[in-house]
């Protein structure tokens, strides 16, 4: 009798049509996201030029994060929406929330790192190769993952809030414990603050690029870069800005609904906002393919390799070439052959 009442309550919160739609979307996004992010990861690692880009390292971090989300969180999400309850036990529920919020933080902090990288390239071009050495890049990547999942350890251990099941919405999330919850603080420092940093950084990038064009218009070189390099870096910056704006468009509705409609007065809007948030882990490969020529070349290179083209295989695996863009951590050594301390990726 109690179970019947509980299921009835769930149906009044989320209409059955809404949960079915959510489950279908979760299944589709899981398959598309796993395939898309896996192909992107392999394509970037196999492409000689992109493999040497600093930005590629952070893009790979983003791909791995999305791959984990699509392969772990989305299948479990589909299951709970189909059954309209969580049936996999409290431990797995805690790990679900841990991976979900940790991956979200990794994605956002990876975008922060990409944005700072773009700004450093434009504003401090002469120091760029010194700032972004191979060791420092790996340290940044390690910090991104440690901080992202480290902030979830207190609620995981029950020290500050707790991870568990919200029965009214059958969702595994951050719950209050002893009247204390880190949810608002995590929202401010884990979502709002990184977004502000990204927005400010891209604003500064826009201002610096505008000033450079105004002062150096008509010259063959801009700030030490050739015109071709400048155009390439500008396209890459535009691509990363597009990724951030899409991420913001996907996650902002969910954040707004969680704050403005905590009592779930509009269940359909919550479902739609959740689906949009899941889409953020799927759309990045589509953005890469649609907006950047080099990334399309990487996908094409992988496709040729899969067709067992011997020329492509020899080019991909035999070449020692890394990117000659200013975005490469080895760029300083390439421009200065007298440097006896090359940076290794």
UniProtKB/TrEMBL annotation:
Residues 36-288 form the G-protein coupled receptors family 1 profile domain. Residues 316-345 are annotated as: Disordered. Pfam families: 7tm_1. InterPro entries: GPCR_Rhodpsn, GPCR_Rhodpsn_7TM. Residues 316-330 have a biased composition (Polar residues). It is a multi-pass membrane protein. PROSITE patterns: G_PROTEIN_RECEP_F1_1, G_PROTEIN_RECEP_F1_2. One of its GO terms (molecular function) is G protein-coupled receptor activity. The chain crosses the membrane at residues 20-45, 57-76, 96-116, 137-157, 185-209, 236-256, 268-289. It is found in: Cell membrane. Keywords: Cell membrane, G-protein coupled receptor, Membrane, Receptor, Transducer, Transmembrane, Transmembrane helix. GO terms for cellular component: plasma membrane. Belongs to the G-protein coupled receptor 1 family. This is G-protein coupled receptors family 1 profile domain-containing protein. The lineage of its organism: Eukaryota, Metazoa, Ecdysozoa, Arthropoda, Hexapoda.
């Amino acid at each position: 009798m109690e179970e019947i009442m509980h299921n009835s309550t769930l149906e009044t919160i989320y209409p059955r049509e809404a949960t079915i739609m959510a489950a279908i979307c979760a299944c589709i996004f899981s398959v598309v996201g796993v395939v898309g992010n896996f192909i992107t990861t392999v394509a970037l690692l196999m492409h000689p030029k992109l493999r040497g880009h600093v930005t590629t390292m952070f893009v790979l971090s983003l791909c791995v994060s999305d791959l984990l989300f699509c392969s772990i969180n989305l299948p479990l999400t589909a299951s709970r929406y189909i059954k309209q309850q969580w049936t996999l036990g409290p431990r797995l529920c805690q790990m679900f929330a841990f991976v979900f919020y940790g991956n979200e933080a990794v994605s956002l902090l990876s975008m922060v790192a990409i944005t700072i990288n773009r700004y450093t390239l434009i504003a401090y071009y002469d120091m760029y190769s010194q700032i972004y050495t191979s060791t420092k890049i790996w340290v940044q990547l390690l910090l991104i993952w440690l901080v992202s999942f480290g902030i979830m350890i207190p609620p995981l251990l029950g020290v500050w809030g707790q991870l568990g099941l919200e029965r009214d919405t059958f969702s595994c999330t951050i719950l209050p414990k002893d009247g204390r919850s880190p949810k608002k603080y995590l929202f401010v420092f884990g979502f709002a603050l990184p977004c502000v940093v990204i927005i400010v950084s891209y604003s500064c990038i826009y201002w610096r690029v505008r000033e450079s064009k105004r002062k150096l218009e008509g010259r063959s070189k801009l700030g030490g870069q050739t015109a071709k390099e400048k155009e390439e870096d500008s396209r890459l910056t535009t691509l990363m800005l597009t990724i951030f704006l899409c991420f913001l468009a996907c996650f902002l509705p969910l954040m707004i609904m969680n704050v403005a409609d905590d009592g779930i007065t509009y269940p359909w809007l919550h479902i739609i906002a959740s689906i949009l948030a899941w889409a953020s882990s799927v759309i990045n490969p589509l953005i890469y393919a649609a907006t950047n020529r080099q990334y399309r070349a990487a996908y094409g290179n992988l496709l040729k390799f899969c067709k067992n083209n011997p020329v492509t295989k020899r080019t991909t695996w035999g070449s020692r070439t890394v990117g000659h863009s200013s975005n490469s951590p080895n760029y300083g050594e390439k421009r200065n052959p007298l440097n006896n301390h090359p940076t290794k990726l």
